[in-house]
TrEMBL record:
Origin: domain of life: Bacteria
NCBIfam families: PRK00211.1 (NF001238), sulf_tusC_dsrF (TIGR03010)
Gene, per the UniProt record: tusC
Family designation: Belongs to the DsrF/TusC family.
Coiled-coil region: none
Protein name stated in the entry: Sulfurtransferase complex subunit TusC
Length: 118
């Protein structure tokens, strides 16, 4: 089994790219691969509570992130500096995440065999 780390950097609801990456993540997990997710930069907004994608005629990817646990995707990380720079903290998010510092991100990347940036 390989270990995959999906790195989510983009704002939600601007394009279908986040949905496509999420589909790829769920498919990878469905084939019994080890999947982790790291939210950095504007990607932390993907987990923000209170999103209203219906107003933008896009799929609610935030709701789909809540299904990650059903696919055994439980290693979910958010970079502390990205959250702080955007005025967010763990209480603002729809999922429990492990908050890692920018210095810890490099170690996290090294722990995975396959990196998939969005």
């Amino acid at each position: 089994m390989k270990t995959y780390l999906f790195v989510m950097r983009r704002l939600p609801h601007l394009t279908s790219h986040v949905q496509e990456t999420l589909d790829q993540m769920l498919t990878t997990a469905a084939f019994d691969q080890s999947v982790s997710v790291l939210f950095v930069d504007d990607g932390v907004f993907q987990l923000k509570q209170g999103q209203k994608p219906a107003q933008m005629v896009l799929r609610n990817t935030a709701a789909m992130f809540t299904a990650l646990e059903m696919y055994d995707i439980t290693r979910i990380y958010a970079e502390a500096e990205s959250l702080s720079a955007r005025g967010l903290d763990a209480d603002d998010l729809i999922l429990p995440v492990k908050i890692v510092s920018r210095a810890e991100v490099n170690d996290l990347l090294k722990q995975h065999q396959v990196l998939i940036p969005d």
